[in-house]
Amino acid sequence: MEHTLYHYCIPQDGSNGDKTVWKALEMFSSFFKCPLLKGDSAERELNAVESEFELNKKDDDNRLSQLMAYTCGMDGEASIMGREYKKKGTKNEKPFHPFAKFPWGNMQSLRTEPESNGINVMNELRDFYNTHYYARNMRLVVMAGYELDEIQRRVVEHFKDVPSSPRVCSDGIDATSCVTNLHPYKLPFHASSLQKLYRVIPVRNHHTLSLTWQIPSLCPHWKTKPADYIGHLLGHEASGSILSVLKEKGYAMSLTAGTGEDGLGDASTHALFSLDISLSKRGMKHWEEVIKIVYVYIGMLKYHFLEGHVDAIGKKKEGLAPWIYNELKSIAELSYMFADEGDVTDVVEEVAENMAPWCNIPEERILDNELLLGDEVDSDAVKSILFDHLTPKNMRIDLMSSLFGRDADFNDDSGVDEEEKKEESEEDDEMIQPMDLDDDNDDEEDHLIFDKEKAGPASIEPRFGTKYWVEEIPADVIQHWTQAAQPQLPSSDLVIDLPPKNTYIPTNLDLKPLPSDDAHHPLLNCSVKVCISVGKKKLWVPAAVTKFKSKKAVHSLSLSYEDEGEKWHILDDHHVYEKLDKDDDQHVEVGHEGSFDKGKTKFKVTAVPRDGEGITFNYGDSGHDYDVEDGLAFPPIPPASPESRLPCLVYEKNSIKMWHLQDRKFKRPTADLRISFTCDGMNDSALNQACMSLFVKLCADALTETCYLASVCDLGSSLGRTDTGFSIRVHGYDDNLMALTKEVLGVVMSFRGRDDKSDLPSTIKDGRFEACLEVLLRQYSNAGMDASSFSASLRLLCLRPSMKSSFAKLKALQGITIADFVKVMDNLLKKLTGK
């Protein structure tokens, strides 16, 4: 909303000497120094913008975001920054919030409308460039595999000619400041757009309730992140959570809470705190009660906040229990310490955005701000959000549901003959026929949820064409929610509480020991040339160091020769290598020379592996190496890896095989466990495949509370259906990985050995079968709506006849009962093969 981000990514320079990185940087800098801004170039870009808009036009999230912008209702009375905007249909000129603009852009907004108003788009484009594109108003991030001094020199060389001030001065723009010029604007939603319910027609088949509260900008609170803290409390999925209660009642399947990361949801003028709930059809009927439960939880948080806690010096203070924030802080520190290397593009984008002056982030925290938290929670900011902003009077409700209809139902077919439409329908292939999940539902029940005839024709958002109805929330309902949000403990019929203490936070971060003969040694896996005697001649032959062992201060190395197998040598001057092994700043380098066997055999290092890599092997001879590079000779054949560096079979019993491979490259206290189960008869029918998908969804649903606590600690888990059965993956910190694995396997295996019972195991709660079935049926009915995934699915169906289409699986599941499902799963799980 208030900045433009340009980025590019190219491969790192090769070894042939061409420095394409600096050539690309020079080309990139030219746009900010002397752009051509030709009309034909703008035309091509306009067509690209239009294509991107059309590609995303049917995305429900984008449609809802634009609907919020279109209906924010920001009707001011005085001009802002000296500019006035005429509101259509009125004689008065009134300002509006930038949030209300159309951020995507398309052919209509960038050509048709400006031309109809006599606006020259190219002139406006050049004026915008000349006003805003100057060095003081820009931030640059370059990430490349070169020395920092070299990168800095190149940046100065190519960007020094970018003007420091605007090329053209404009009213309302302070050329000496980089602070956003949106500071006069405040919150985006006018009071007239709040306390309203927007019923929205989606493209896909789903039911989503979105609650949005506008809050002041979070930029001053970058260190403590109070909105993330509250989002953790409202969005947690363990026992006592909002989601846990809603699932118990059969109202919901998932819930997320927090502020958006884009410029619309998190800006210098405001932030939007959202709580999105994926509802069941039953939840749609009780959406008012769902919102009440949310406010009951907020009221419980307020109660505990006012009750306070005793600090370290025995003084009572307002605020939630410190252990909640401390848990998040310790988890954030671990995540930062053992974080994966991020994608280059994501890293430079994040750093560039963090450098924006309105973010208020000091230079020393720009790189780690996103992950780390401050020392203490900002109780004042938390209290302000909870008590002043998360209120019914400051809330906007968007209820998007296919029960109101779907976008395809409202297409204009006036020019198509009814008989022609009937013939086209009969010709459609079964695999791609659209399925309406709600066809078999009771129309009278749908009528009770929403009476479209009584509501009248839907309004239309002009950009995306989204249909919606808007209605005032009755005052008594607002008052009911307000009362629920008062600081108080919940009633006994609602099992609502603060999150439980997380038992999955790792405490043991020690690495497992490596094999004694294949652990650490400066020469291990190096390629060397060894001087050997052949008659009276001395020959240098290539070899690789594959193993080592030490006994009574004697270091022995095993060398693998290309033609002669392996041979052990005693290393001379072992104390030199002991020092290298202890000093992280010193390493064996190419060209290093030494000797074996009390000076009888000399060697020199020709190649050194990177940290964690296996054996490196080359000739170390310019003639041979150039021949290999030029394709005139075969490369040297590396020796086989030792058994300690290959997957090892550690368990084999009752059709179960388990393999283990120890990590050597990343050296982090993490593990990755993957189990693949093969089930006989998996591909016999569409019903079998669909039931397996339902089985996986039921197990994941039953594990939500446990797996959520683990996921907060970067201990992830997933279950998925495969072509031959199903798979389990558990990955993260090794300390508690097996504990989570036992929980997952406990639920999965609860379906086995039940002696032909027709009911579900006790691990599956009442009502969850119907809820998971509803979600899966909607998932199948939405299949094929994305062109890319649909074409990929068709290709697989042609290549693999055993696969069944989503339509076939949807048809197979219609009317299935618990007894039918249990019978199918009994047959599939009778004989399992795991690996």
Describe what you observe in this structure:
This protein has 26 helices and 21 strands. 35% of the residues lie in helices and 16% in strands. The chain is of the alpha+beta class and 835 residues long. The chain is globular. The longest helix is centred in the middle third of the chain and has 21 residues, at 287-307.
List keywords for this structure.
6-stranded antiparallel β-sheet, globular, 835 residues, alpha+beta, single chain, 21 strands
The proportion of strand residues reads 15-25%
Any idea what the shape is?
globular
Structural category: alpha+beta
The biggest sheet amounts to: 7 strands, mixed
Low-confidence stretches: 74-95, 413-444
How is the topology of this model organized?
Layout: H1 20-33, H2 39-56, H3 60-70, H4 107-116, H5 121-132, H6 148-159, E1 196-200, E2 207-215, H7 226-235, H8 242-248, E3 252-259, E4 271-279, H9 281-285, H10 287-307, E5 309-310, E6 316-317, H11 322-337, H12 344-354, H13 379-389, E7 395-401, H14 418-427, H15 443-449, H16 452-455, E8 459-460, E9 467-472, H17 475-484, E10 527-534, E11 537-551, E12 554-561, E13 565-570, H18 574-582, E14 593-596, E15 601-607, H19 622-629, E16 648-653, E17 656-660, E18 670-679, H20 686-702, H21 704-712, E19 716-721, E20 725-733, H22 737-749, H23 768-782, H24 787-799, H25 806-813, H26 818-829, E21 832-834
Parallel strand pairs: 1-7
Antiparallel strand pairs: 1-9, 2-4, 2-7, 3-4, 5-6, 8-9, 10-11, 10-15, 11-12, 12-13, 14-15, 16-17, 18-20, 18-21, 19-20
Helix pairs in contact: 1-6, 7-13, 10-17, 20-23, 20-25, 20-26, 23-25
